[in-house]
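Re: Re: ligand-bound prediction request (bumping)

Still looking for help on this. To restate: I need the protein modeled with NAP bound, output as structure tokens. Inputs repeated here so nobody has to scroll up.
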Amino acid sequence: MTILVTGGRGAIARAVTAALIDAGQDVRVASREPSAVPSAVAYDAADPAPALQGISQVFLYSDASTAPAFVAAAEAAGVKQVVLLSSLSALDGPEDPHAKTERVITRGSYATTLLQPGAFMSNAKYWAHQVRATGQIRLPYLDAEEAPIHERDIAEAAVRVLLDGPGSGHDGRGYPMTGPESMTRRHQIEMVTAVTGVPIEAVDLTPDEARAEMRMRDEGQRETLLAYWASRVGAPAPIEPGVELLTGHTARSFTTWLTDNPGLFD
Ligand SMILES: NC(=O)c1ccc[n+]([C@@H]2O[C@H](COP(=O)([O-])OP(=O)(O)OC[C@H]3O[C@@H](n4cnc5c(N)ncnc54)[C@H](OP(=O)(O)O)[C@@H]3O)[C@@H](O)[C@H]2O)c1
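Reply:
Sorry for the wait, this slipped through. Here it is.
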């Protein structure tokens, strides 16, 4: 009974792997860059069959374009359970890329559970680069609200489902999950300063300034993000219960995340 953890370089995959090993599970870590991850095997999302040989359960990063190849290879390998790292955005409608992946992955002959987290607290790592370089965080829609989630909470939720295994009540379910409170991005930046002592100038960009500064190759994705943030101004983010349902504890706070990631902003 070996569990495959994809996305080996990711923070969530690393936490899932460590917790499964602690729980005495046989784990195979897979990455598109296996040399960057201790003991990892190569993972080619377009041809996942080699990584799936002898695997009974999978923690899967979402990718719409390669989902059909995953389903075929997982069925051929006799996989019994897949836990998909999806997104809360999958609930926005059928055109969302994560919704498309969910539709394909759930067609497989194995049990599927969908983890649907909102914005990650770890997105603040991108802010840290700006702070170290300029002392500023430059973002559009600073008053947009979100309820960011700690990556360890997502990982613990995934581990609960994998350890419970197929046939244990998680099959066919989706778990929307967020952090414990809705906060504006402006307030998150104030919290960074309060916890780390690093002074930060928050610069509220116009949408056009943001378009010029956002280094995103996919224009459609950029416009979707801008429209999403615009829609969140003055709209507190709903708090979703997935973390508490699966782990039995309340979701970790942003203060905890900042304390868990010391030295990022210095
Ligand atoms: N950031 C957010 O706020 C947020 C919120 C909700 C959902 N999500 C979703 O959560 C996932 C991870 O997000 P992130 O922000 O942590 O992204 P990221 O930093 O771009 O990626 C983290 C890890 O994802 C793995 N990965 C990426 N594409 C993959 C693929 N096609 N097949 C297998 N593994 C792949 C990579 O592992 P290797 O390179 O080691 O293979 C990488 O280490 C994404 O699907 C994202 O859409 C993100």
